[in-house]
Amino acid sequence: xxxxxxxxxxxIGPQHPSTHGVFRMRATMDGEVIVDMEPVFGYLHRGIExxxxxRTYNGFVSLTDRLDYLSSMSNNFAYCMAVExxxxxxxxxxxxxxxxxxxxxxxxxxxxxxxxxxLNDCGAFxxxxxxxxxxxxxxxxxxxxxxxxxxxxxxxxxxGLSQDIPxxxxxxxxxxxxxxxxxxxxxxxxLRQNEVLLARSRGVGILPKETAINISASGPVLRxxxxxxxxxxxxxxxxxxxFEFDIPTGACxxxxxRYRVRVEEMRQSLRILGQARKQLPGGEFQTPVVQPVHLPVxxxxxxxxxxxxxxxxxxxxxxxxxxxxxxxxxPSFLNLTALRDMVVGWKIADAxxxxxxxxxxxxxxxx
Amino acid sequence: xxxxxxxxxxxxxLKERFPGAVVEANDQAVLVKSESLLDVARYLKDTTGLDFxxxxxxxxxxxxxxFELVYRLASLKHNHTMTLKTRCYxxxxxxxxxxxxxxxxxxxxxxxxxxLFGIKFEGHPNMKRIVLWDGFKGHPLRKDYLSDGN
Lengths: 367, 150
Fold this sequence. Notes:
The structure holds two protein chains of two kinds.
Chain A (H helix, E strand, L loop, with lengths): L7 E5 L11 E7 L2 E8 L7 H5 L8 H4 L7 H16 L5 H30 L4 H21 L8 E2 L2 E2 L7 H23 L3 H7 L7 H6 L5 H5 L6 H4 L20 H25 L18 E9 L2 E9 L7 E5 L1 H5 L3 H5 L4 H11 L3 H5 L1
Antiparallel strand pairs in A: 1-2, 2-3, 4-5, 6-7, 7-8
Helix pairs in contact in A: 3-4, 4-5, 4-11, 4-14, 5-6, 6-11, 11-14
Chain B lengths: L2 E2 L2 H11 L4 E4 L3 E4 L4 H10 L7 E9 L3 E10 L4 E10 L5 E3 L8 H12 L2 E3 L28
Parallel strand pairs in B: 1-6, 3-6, 7-8
Antiparallel strand pairs in B: 2-3, 4-5, 5-6
């Protein structure tokens, strides 16, 4: 006699160690297999887009830190760039280089957490992530030197930076650039062919190329599916056209590919950092213009390749002191659209891993 | 370098293909009637040479008299981009057609726009609030909604 089964509802989160923030999955299960899943979020909604309409252009910079709080520097960068585009401000060479250095350091710091947390979800509980946090601390030390903060830096301003880099920054950066490649090699050697990692992540949660494009995925999630699309290359902003670097892509878009892409991206970021460090010019860090108060009427979309994908700010100005509308194109929010398609048909333990491999930050999803 | 296609050129193409659909075309964007939005979007997505296969983002702006929907489309194949706009009128029950069938990436974004602006997307499979809870009153990103909740 066949065993009769009945689907049941399983609630994962919002308070759960594997949901990386306050995120909830309402999964319909058939035994251990997920047959349907609905993501539920909004627990961290602060109405940042509404708050932007009540702040001056520079006053909003500190709130962008609170979007994707693992890459605050990138958020500052994207926002300032969008406003400068609308105001027609050209920032100094030195400022551009410092911004690129910060953004790339941020990418490494964020990917370290992404990879560490992913391995946590794999079952390598806490050991890899503690090593990765050790390295991330070095980057946070660098950020602390320039901004006094370790998480929400509020470092960039429309038209430049809040302050120049201090004297001790460059020697510390050189030391970091010398040590970091060895550290990445160390993990990679340990993990790349690790049997548990391969067994858990190879062929799991495949996101096909066409689906990835159709759901507007970006960043490592899109590239792991084999799409060579990186805003730094396809639409170079700031001074990215002066650096040599490659865009790592995956073969089939499984969890392992997403992991590999992130590790390779850290290496590429180090390449960019090395070149930016060599080319870093002297001069002013801030444009010698008065702070923009009234921006011209119009609208602008400025986007960058943030750590999680295409981060864009769509700003509408009506010539008042605050944006009329400020929409944030958050990469995690759109990458999350793919989750349901990726987890259906997989077991609950795999779903946790697939979710971890997307690498989301709730701060920019809920906004 | 991503090329921003001029709205004037695409507008001209669309005017020939869909008479009466284009309201306004300028250098930056093409504004179409909401009734023809789906046809125009499908044309932009499927026509060889345009191939707008990627919806970079969609959002709305409240101009009191009307809501303006903004769709930024991109083509990964040709590395070009354009902005498509449409308007919907009325504050009680503004409705526009959903583009989820064309770009699945619109799913959460349309729900978010519904949540924060109160614009309904006709044809969306799961039109309900996304970041705020079901009993929430009002739509916070509307200009007449003050941030103290009144």
